[in-house]
Model the fold of this input.
Amino acid sequence: MRMMIVDDSNMIRTRISRVVQDGGISGISIVGLARNGAEALRIARAAQPEVVTMDLTMPEMDGVECIRQLLRLLPRVNILVVSALSDKATAIAALKLGARGFVAKPFSDDELRLALLDVTDSH
Done:
């Protein structure tokens, strides 16, 4: 399963990558890392990810707009929102658009792993 990580924080992108690679989530390969929604859409066109972790608050194009466009591009993609709890209303909007799950920052490795297993199961 191909996965893309979208977050404007390099630290968060690295952490999610590490959890996926070291966390015993088998069958997931990371095909793209994006700093914002615009970059994510460019990568998604080329890499065709099946799973995406999506931050909501980013420069250039935010997560909600990116989810809207990503689902138009790849209707079957599984999106896991990874964002601060202060964005709760935005997270609800993202879930209404078609995101499959939500993990609040700061998150533990286990929370992220479980949420990823959850969205990849529904594939």
User: Anything to note?
Assistant: The longest strand covers residues 78-84.
